[in-house]
Amino acid sequence: MKPTNVLIDRHPGRSSQTLGVARALGTDPDLIHEPSVGVVGTKGDSQCYLGVMAKVDAIHAELRNRIGKGSNQLQMRLVQPEYTIAISDGIRNGTREMRYSLIGREITNDSLCEHLNGSGLAGTIAVVACDKPPVGTLAALLEHNRPAIIMSDGPIHPGQDPRTGEAIDLVSAYQVAGHPDAEYRHHIACHACPGIGSCGGMFTYNTMQTFIGVVGMEPLHMVAPPSDDPRRVNEFASELVGLLANLIDKDLKPRDIVVRDSIRNAVIVAMAIGGSTNVTLHAPEIARAAGYGDFWKEIMTPEEFNYLSQHVVPVLTDARPYGKYSMVDIDNIGGVPVIVRELLDAGLLNGDVLTCTGETLAAQVQRLGARPADGKVVYPVEKPYKPTGGLRVLGGNLSPDFSAILKLAGVEGGLENNVFRGKARLFEGEQSLLQALDKTPERFQNHDMIIVRYEGPSGAPGMPEMLDPTSRITALCRERGIVVGLMTDARFSGGSVGLVIGHVGPEAALGGPIALIEEGDEIVADLNTDELTCTALKDPAVAAGRKAAWDKAVADNGGIHPNCGAADTRLLHRARATAVPATRGGGLHPNREVWVRNPRKAERSGFKLRNRHRPDKNKVF
Question: Based on the domain organization, do 363 and 395 belong to the same domain?
């Protein structure tokens, strides 16, 4: 179980500290020149991260017990655990600190890149939590491309309102932010998030942990159990070490697992769970790290994405925020393997792709003995919770990049005949909208389309998510029985519901059409044609005149529009200077070009979707 062709370096200067580490960790000093193995984790300022250290410690202890010279041991050098840092999305939503959230994905990637490559790790187990660090971790592991495996720390249990018995969570607390009774607001806040673990609904965390499991980098049965499940520090720790040893022995690397068809599988499952719109930011970044240049050309076109969501892939889960249940409830009826089994049996996934267990996806599901759907928390494909998938991307004259994303699973009204028509209500940044919702909520009327701009990757900078305003708008609409939409060049929390359209690009800071909308313009979202349009901008003369005025404002302000946020730290300045569009993941890449390490051809396996509802049953996607 010892990697071959390893350079043995016995330089005394370089050996001195490795000898010291071996003594401190209690491992054999004779193994200090062998390839190294270790555990990494994520830390942050919320309860999402509080359970990570215990899992890292348990896995590290298991690794230490497996290090040695015996035939069944790992003959490797053990390194101490390392941690990356991130902010709390739940605590920072609605504040300017939220600009650092998506940037946290990039910081995780950078810091792990230094650790993995600088330390030369030949085997890694990663424990991840919250939304962005898991994606940054996976990207770094793909770039390093040595045997590795991931375990998500697990979700939090839902809270309970002791007065009503109703299950509540973080989103419940955000949705009462506009409630007039301060005592009631505090009451919900006190009971919404008990214990430890990341957000428990099908928000971005659980969308991406499910994605990472289906893409093959996390054992499927480890995704859904809650953070405080004792299996996570007992049998899962031992199992992960055994799986890593197998990956090392077989030299099975992340880029052998994360391939075109496994990424496609994960996107299809994200549709089927009514997952977060952030998946269309994170999937391109994962594809880039796996060696593909353009997700929307090499992995899945926008047209195919919409076809699958509209005609092929139903929503199978009755999950928060659009439904009733939490990830813990999904775990109680069998977890993610149940969902994957349903989609495999329906012919909607390629079961032949490899996973971190060394098995194919189909073989892993079979070995785990995945149960059939219970019909209450997870529905069968034949009788789904919702007949069409949860996500749709939009083009049109407001989204020429075909970047705008709508979470259909969360829409509660306003799409009569699949069309929304509304009047633009302009806000130059999130803070002005929050002030209006707080001070003058009565100003919002039925079929308004709120426009929040200059909050994109370059404009904010950092592309914050907008759980606070969307939650207030949802509560306002439910209370008054109206529909108010929100459109932005920023992004949304997976906990957002309502008629909300994010990632509109090109963003306002770069002169995209969203920057040219004026107060009162008619905005049309047409899901029959998958277009997002501003009627006024259909007139070329109007569009040209408004663009000229925008160009002048930029020129008069030294090359940046005055409505852009302040880039007042080196990190935010880096984001403004290097951010790529949402279609490329919204990440930070030099010269605004997506850097791809060791590019690979987007191979096509010939796998065919088998679905009787698809007109062309022989089409290879």
Answer: no
Using alpha carbons only, what angle is made at residue 108 by residues 104 and 111, rounded to the nearest 5 degrees?
Answer: 130
Q: Which domain holds residue 248?
A: 31-157+195-367
> Helical H runs in 415-459?
430-439
The whole-angstrom separation of Cα 423 and Cα 415 is 15
On whether residue 93 sits in a domain, the answer given is yes
Backbone conformation region of residue 55, classed left if phi is above 0, alpha if psi is from -120 to 50, else beta: alpha
State whether residue 561 is helix, strand or coil: coil
What confidence category does residue 410 fall into, taking pLDDT thresholds of 50, 70 and 90?
confident
Give the model's confidence band at 5: pLDDT under 50 very low, under 70 low, under 90 confident, else very high: very low
Phi, psi of 497 (to 5 degrees): -130, 170
Are 362 and 397 in a shared domain? no
Specify if 506 maps to a domain. yes
What number is the average pLDDT over the span 32-56? 95
pLDDT tens, residue by residue, 132-160: 999 999 999 999 999 999 999 999 999 99
Residue 171 forms part of a structural domain: no
293 and 239 part of one domain: yes
Q: Are residues 397 and 356 in the same domain?
A: no
Residues 426 and 347 in one domain: no
Using the predicted structure, report yes or no on whether residue 2 has a pLDDT greater than 60.
Answer: no
Residue 368 DSSP class: T
Report how far residue 173's alpha carbon sits from residue 494's, in angstroms, rounded to the nearest whole number: 15
Q: Per the structure, how many domains does the chain have? A: 2
Same domain, 289 and 411: no
The count of other CB atoms within 10 Å of the CB of residue 545 is: 12
Domain CATH for 525: 3.50.30.80
Radius of gyration of the chain from its Cα atoms, rounded to whole angstroms: 24
Amino acid identity at 190: C
What phi and psi, each to the nearest 5 degrees, are found at residue 289?
A: -65, -25
Prediction pTM value = 0.94
Strands 448-452 and 419-427: parallel
566: number of Cβ within 10 Å: 12
Strands 484-488 and 500-502: parallel
Residues annotated as part of the active site: 493
In the predicted model, is pLDDT for residue 4 greater than 60?
no
> What is the spatial distance between Cα 574 and Cα 587, in angstroms, rounded to a whole number?
11
**What is the amino acid identity at position 115?**
H
pLDDT tens track for 234-275: 999 999 999 999 999 999 999 999 999 999 999 999 999 999
